[in-house]
Amino acid sequence: MFVVDDDPLVRDSIEDLLHSVGLQTRLYASPRDFLAASRPEGPACLVLDVRLPEQSGLDFQSKLVGTADELPIVFITGHGDIPMTVRAMKRGAVEFLTKPFRDQDLLDAIQSAIARDRARRADALALEDLRERFASLTPRERDVMAQVVSGRLNKQVAADLHLSEARVKAHRGQIMRKMHADSLPELVRMADRLGLAIAG
Question: Model pTM?
Fold first, then answer.
């Protein structure tokens, strides 16, 4: 758990609250401090004040999108308004809480954010595993897979790649085994997940 707020009283108060429910917390006075610090791996979230001296929390949120430092964000602010809330939520914020907020509302938002980060990490690991499986295919198997997931029949694949149908069938079997796919629809989903071009 990470908290970025320039008010030490707010930081300490949030730290006490999170420690009371067993959540380890690291506190930072600014986005610069947060980025400069090493952080442990594992599901987490960022509790971020909207109004900070050097850089607004909303601008910092924009800066984090798509980077290795991106985390689910719970915004807190003493001066929130609807446009701010809309901007934060459109960019993926989990919650936007106006001070003073109820402790339980913050805890609920943090638990939701951590669950989101846990799911994101599991998804990233699954994609990495899928990429490794795809990398294990030979160039010819990749060619066959691209045709197969596009809905081409064995004889069409054979004609296009100048192979025998028996050879195409053998390649398909190897592809299914190496990709750990139990069915063609599953293989198509894998190809889609990998971003492989699938002809319509």
Answer: 0.77
